[in-house]
Specification:
- Helices cover 7% and strands 34% of the residues.
- By secondary structure, the chain is mostly beta strands.
- It folds into two domains: 157 residues; 70 residues, 2-Layer Sandwich (Herpes Virus-1), CATH 3.30.40.10.
- Strands 5, 6, 7, 9, 10, 11 and 12 form a seven-stranded antiparallel β-sheet that branches. A four-stranded mixed β-sheet has the order 1-15-13-14. Strands 2, 3, 4 and 8 form a four-stranded antiparallel β-sheet that branches.
- The longest helix is centred in the last third of the chain and has 10 residues.
- The radius of gyration is 33 Å and the shape is elongated.
């Protein structure tokens, strides 16, 4: 018996190797080639988050509303709820509370249900550690309204609760270049009610407007800017450094989560390496570099 060959003279593939120690040889599988047709498109190119640069001026509003004290307290009649909070004031002024208020962007708040709930104004003096509470009989009876009216912003921008704080500006606090009687400051906070597990309502601020000498500013809190903007901080204070390099001062904010946690150099590197905030891990849409000017004579203070 001779050797076995192919008809065309091309040798056949070698036989599989014999079993080793009783273990059969592996099975070989030949995968089909790439199907004919156009090549698949390349993965989309992810562009790094852009960096915007803004020069910010620290503004002293003249009043500090302590947000963790904002609450609703039961009225003496047992039916209504009264708005209450603690605050500090650098000058005398007044607080006006509105229910179901509408903002017309002209510093004029309209109470859309004034026939049921009229605005009430309370004057205050200069001083720190003050407490505000609506007068008895001026609160809101939540049983008269649907829960959705209290916990959501209504059509046309109607907020369930709003209060306006107007601060008198003394002659030594007037803005540079302002004429007599023109310098003014007004802080407006718009809020909704939140129903807690115990069926009681609390207050949550959803929008803040600051008026300074007739100019309207929409305030958004930046987490971490306080340590950077506080002129009383010393160089050896912690909390001012970039969370990446731990050496340079933080000056860049991540948006939309608003964490100021990066320095300029680390922000440039981060945008090419990840799209997650180092603090909360939320996606990054933009990076905002802020230079806080504490030496400006226009608006001095911290806000």
């Amino acid at each position: 018996m001779g050797n076995i060959g192919s008809r065309s003279g091309v040798p056949l593939p070698p036989p599989p190797p014999p079993p080793v120690h009783g273990v059969p040889p592996p099975y070989y599988h030949r995968y089909p080639g790439w199907p004919p047709g156009p090549a698949p498109p390349p993965p989309p190119l992810v562009m790094p988050a852009p960096v915007e640069r803004h020069r910010a001026v620290a503004v002293n509003t003249g009043v500090n509303i302590k947000g963790d004290t904002l609450r609703l307290e039961p009225d003496d009649d047992g039916r209504g709820l009264l708005l209450a909070f603690s605050f500090d004031a650098d000058a005398p002024g007044s607080i006006t509370v509105y229910f179901f208020a509408q903002d017309d962007e002209e510093l004029i708040l309209k109470a859309t249900k004034e026939n049921l709930l009229k605005p009430v104004t309370v004057a205050f003096k200069e001083g720190h550690g003050q407490k505000f509470k609506q007068p008895c009989g001026t609160g809101i009876d939540v049983s008269l309204f649907e829960e959705s009216e209290l916990t959501k912003v209504g059509e046309g921008g109607v907020f369930p609760v709003a209060f306006k704080v107007e601060v008198a500006v003394s002659s030594n606090q007037e803005l540079e270049g302002a004429h007599e009687g023109e310098a003014s400051k007004c802080l407006v906070k718009f809020a909704i009610l939140v129903k807690n597990n115990n069926a009681e309502y609390s207050v949550r601020v959803v929008q803040q407007i600051l008026w300074v000498n007739g100019t309207r500013y929409v305030l958004q809190e930046i987490y971490g800017i306080g340590n950077t903007a506080d002129k009383n901080n010393h160089e050896d204070d912690s909390g001012k450094e970039c969370v990446i390099c731990l050496s340079e001062p933080r000056d860049t904010t991540v948006l939309p989560c608003r964490h100021m946690c990066l320095c300029r150099e680390c922000a440039q590197l981060l945008r090419f390496q990840t799209n997650k905030c180092p603090i909360c891990r939320q996606p990054v849409e933009r990076l905002l570099e802020i230079e806080v000017d504490m030496k400006s004579n226009t608006h001095q203070g911290a806000q």
